[in-house]
Amino acid sequence: MPKNPIHPRSTRRQACAALGALLLGAGAGSALADAAYPTKAITLVVPQAAGGANDVIARVVAQRLSEQMGQPVIVDNRPGAGGTLATAATARAKHDGYTLLLTADSSHVIGPALYRNPGFDPVKDFEPVAPVATAGYVLVANPSFPANNVAELVALAKARPGQYAIASAGNGTLNHLIGEQLQKAAGIQLQHIPYKGSAAAATDVVGGQVPLSVQSLPSSIAFIRGGKLKVLGVVNERRVAALPGVPTIGETLKGFGQAPWYALFAPAGTPAPIVARLQAEVARALDQKDVVERLASVGCEPFKGSSAQLAALVQSDLPKWSRVVKDTGATLD
User: Fold this and answer.
1) pLDDT 10s per residue in the chain (333 long)?
2) Residue 44 burial by Cβ neighbours in a 10 Å radius (0-12, 13-18, 19+)
3) Most buried one in 66, 119, 196, 229, CB count within 10 A?
């Protein structure tokens, strides 16, 4: 018999102690990794094409975050299916803070109402980081279009149902849904023409291929200032600073109005210290005068808030947009 027999309970105690030390060490390593974040480039996924509001906002914010955090922040445009494809792919990315989503309300809370299987759950699959900005949206027309305001458009469209076309950034996008809302509110029928991005839609309205479009100001402000597009009305609930003399659509069609937002999300499971760091960096960026001025120059405004406030916004907007989809009968034609 061995001189120093090993008791089974002693073996279990030693094993548990060793496992505890291993887990403690792993936790400490994770904490250290979180504290050092970021140590490499961050990818900022934008689920829309270049040139639209989401892209413009993302590039302003990415540049400032890169300067603040000392690592490249790379904007990765992945348009398609109203933003749901890129959103779903980001939900499946590693939850380490190096793949983030800067998205519009259209992709995050409208997509799930329009698509039977969007490929993601906007609440369960993401950690809300922070709201970033709001954007001005406008109903624009080719300068040759006979209507100069919303009332004149309504009169024309009622006289010729279905004969006027309205371009959007694609099926399921925010300007598609706003166009559907406009038709329902005004009691008119327009022909929806989906494009692969806001920039392409705006270009064809400028060229006269399509007479109308709902556009974000970042994607259309240069054309408006250059006289290549005329604004029939502002989509937002109140007039926008970039076009103070242009009435809102709601001033003609009572109750009409939206407040489009853009926000930063991380895949679910991203460590809380990383989420907190990102929220703080976004808040810091939005306090910078040059960031505010760059956003204002394209018709946007900073939208400062916490992760909890963004989570509450998502929860409140999901049923709202579900009702819009139902009420307008919007389809992915």
Assistant:
1) 444 443 444 444 454 444 444 444 544 444 555 678 999 999 999 998 888 889 999 999 999 999 999 999 999 999 888 788 999 999 999 999 999 999 998 889 888 888 888 899 999 999 999 999 999 999 999 999 999 999 999 999 999 999 999 999 888 788 888 999 999 999 999 999 999 888 899 999 999 999 999 999 988 999 999 999 999 999 999 999 899 999 999 999 999 998 889 999 999 999 999 999 999 999 999 999 999 999 998 889 999 999 999 999 999 999 988 888 887 777 664
2) buried
3) 229
Angle in degrees, CA 171, 176, 178, rounded to 5: 155
- Strand extents, DSSP E, the chain: 42-46, 73-77, 99-104, 126-135, 137-141, 165-168, 191-194, 212-216, 230-234, 261-267, 300-302
Domain segments of the chain: what residues?
38-134+260-328, 137-251
3-class secondary-structure state, position 108? helix
38-134+260-328 topology per CATH: D-Maltodextrin-Binding Protein; domain 2 (3.40.190)
First to last CA, the chain: 82
| CATH architecture label of 137-251 | 3-Layer(aba) Sandwich (3.40)
Asked if the domains at 38-134+260-328 and 137-251 fall in one CATH topology, the answer is yes
